[in-house]
Structure formats: C-alpha cells, structure tokens
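@channel sequence for tomorrow's demo:
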Amino acid sequence: MPNPLYHSFFERHQDSDALLMIRENGSQLSYREFLDIVARFANTLVACAVKPGDRVVLQVPKSAEALAVYAACVQSGSVMVPLNTGYTADEVDYFVGDAKPKLVICDPKNKEGLESICEKHSAQLETLDAVGEGSFANLAAQQLKAFQTVERSIDDLAAFLYTSGTTGRSKGAMLTQGNLLSNAKALVETWRFTSSDVLFHALPIFHTHGLFVASNVTFLAGSSMIFMPSFKVHQAIEHLPRATTMMGVPTFYTRLLDDARLNRDLVQHMRLFISGSAPLLAETHVAFEERTGHRILERYGMTETNMITSNPYDAERRAGTVGHPLPGVEVRITNQETAVPIPAGEIGMIEVKGPNVFTGYWNMPEKTAEEFREDGFFITGDLGQLDEAGYVQIVGRSKDLIISGGYNIYPKEIELLLDEQEGVLESAVVGVPHPDFGEGVVGVLVAKPGVTLDTEAISAAIHSKIARFKQPKQLFVLPELPRNTMGKVQKNVLRDQYADVFQSKD
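structure tokens (generated this afternoon):
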C-alpha cells in the first residue's frame, strides 16, 4: 500500500457515513465528513509549501479540526509535531528552533507572542481555535475536498513528540508510520476494540495517550468517540451511558469516585476502563471495582515506545502491575551495572524492543546511541521486575522523572529556572504522592547567605516561564540540601520528608 498509515487509519473509511465522533456541543461528525476536512487540510499544507518530510508544529486547543491536521499530515507525508498547549512562548521558541518546521499552527490568542519566533526561524504561522476556526481553516475553505495521498513507507517519519530531558534540553522522539501502526494493531487486538465501540475521549491530543493510543485505536477499529476537550466529571457522568470504553489517567478515576452518581447502573453497559500515563493507586482499583463492578485495566508506555505492556483483557488484572508485553513487543529486566538480564523477582532496568520503539531522537545521534543496546533494546530508564506470573511491575525510575496528571516532568528543567531566581543558592525538585494527580511537584530551595526567600514571590516570578503543569505546587526552604558522601543530593530523603504534604486535596 502506498501510505500504510493513511490506508489503515483513514482511507478505508473514505465513503463511510458511520459516526466518528460526538462533539461537546452535541454535533456529530461522520468518517466521510471528517475525511473531507482532512483532504482540504492536506491541500492547505501543500499550499503552504509543506513538502513530504517537512515538520508541522501544532499547538492548538483540542478539536475535531486539530485531529484532522494530524490525519492531513499523514496523508500529505509531512511530519506532525504536537506541542502541549501549556507551553509558554519561551518554550515554543526552543521547539520551533529545533524542529525547524515549515509551518506552525497555533491558538489565535497566542499568535502575537509567536509571530517574532516564527519569523526568526523562517516558519509560516497560521491559527486554529477550539471550535476549528482560524486562518488555517479559512485557507482550507478554499481548497478541494479531494487529495492524492502521498506515498510513504512504514520506515518514513509520521510524527515526533518532545520529551523533556534530564539536562533540561527537550528531545524529539521520532516515530515512524510502522511504529504507530504496529502499536495500534496490538492495542486493538489486546483490548478487543471493534466498530461497535464508543470511546469516551477526554484526553489531550498533544500527548501520546490521547493521540496515538485513543485516537489511533478508534481509527483502526472504525469505532466512534465522544470527543470532549478536557475531562469534566459532569460531562463524564452525562456521556458514559452511551459509551462502551473509556481511557484516562488516574486523576479521571479519582474524580469520578468523588461523585456519588458513579454507580453500577451508570456503567453497567460499559465494556472496558483503561488507565495509564501514571500509576494507579491500589485503593483506587479497589474503590472503583466496589462501586462499579469494573476492574480498571492498567497499561504501560512511553513517548519513545508507544505502549509496551498491558494487563490482560480476560485474565487477572493485577493492581500494582502493568501486565504483560503487547504482541510483538519484547521486555527484559537487566542489571543496571552490567546490563545482563536478571531473573524474575529481581529489580532492574526495564528494556524494550519491538516495532513500536522509536527510531531515535531528532538531531541527537549521540543521545540516541546512549539509549539503545547493541542488540536493539531501548533502555527505558524505569526500574521494574517480573512477578511469578510474568506481570511487569514498575518499582521506580532511575531518572528523576515526575509524572503528574499523566504528564512527564523532569526536575532539572524546573531546578534551572528556580536557581535563576534572586536570592536562591540552589534548589531540588521532587515528586511526592498526590491524591488527584498521582504525583505533585515540590520545590526545595536553599537561600544565599543572609537572604530570606519569599516563596510566593518566586512562584509568581516563574509563572510565565514554564507550563502550569510543571510549576511546583509547593515551595519549601531548607538551610541545606541533604547529600551523600559523594556530594549528590539525596532526593529520596526529600521525597520522604515531604511525602505527606498533599494528603488533603488542594
């Protein structure tokens, strides 16, 4: 097939009047209507001089039209680079400078702040808002709703997603058509998705979970979506009776449990609840099953690998584990020092190999080489073990990654910003248990001699410099940071010290 991804996800639905999505305002969109938009958008990309292999940066609110931009990139052979809508102009400046896109599409309200950035990096700037309107949509209205799909192979890039690095420099994880297609096929098989399914979709689509898991599975299965811009409990309660499946992060489930309307009658027709992007607390598992009769299915993935493992559909879904490797995916646990595989029950580095694994980091060959073994296994940076039944259990992270509300946060980026603030000698950032977000970001500061730090002023100073989800929920001041004999900051001590700071929801 000339374009495997477009053929598998979209082309076969070209003449289908089957329902693709129900939007927040209640309007419905069929596959045929959606693909008409996609074709117009693909023609618009060509009109903007975007060629196969060129990057298209997308930082826009979630909408059917935003999803159509992704499909248009696939059809035209360009490479989609979605960005978190929370990123500030300073952060976007780095991404545009690194990705060197031909086109940037942003929210109209951010246009003024991005104009000089796009001009500096020689990128065309267009807009698209939450209801699918803007200059890009205006250009598309003038285009034909037919487009000759560009030939691509499974080895051609389809997208890359930026994942923060521990050095503070974000890395673009390059994903091919084959990466995305193989993973969608494995998930459809594992989770038994069919054209009869209706997915409650309230995840963001700038993230692998909402875009490359939820949306791609829907397209491949020919299912429908209840497509919400974000998760709101009252909307979930309203729409779950017409859904068969739901994908979410732990926050979704804890908030549902806080609403007395969640009961067995509300979800008796549901087939499957899936959770990922952050660990689900055992008590959430228990409480949800007691309330609804459904046991949440947890899975494990990364930006670089798409999904890696999943708890089984039919067999036992074990709380505290992320299940078994997906079809076609190999997982091994290795000794951190020797890289030699270790027996079940022992804790080591999780490594993964398969058609789902990315090809490397954009413009970072040295970093790419560091993260792969000679035999092709990718080093995830997560520590885990296999239990007696072969279930993968994640026990920690070798890097200081924080996962809050399903988003990956690397402390170093925040620490560098905190260290710049007046009067701050040094800082350390850790993630501690949070009842709603899984982990909450805590910053610990040390003042320069003779300085009294104002934590509220520091929080205000960094507010516009970093995305909201990365901002510390609490700042504390200590006379010094705990260190070992080698001078390394003992973040485990800090995590223990502030473990209870979010015991009550903020």
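heads up for whoever presents: The first strand starts at residue 19 and ends at 23.
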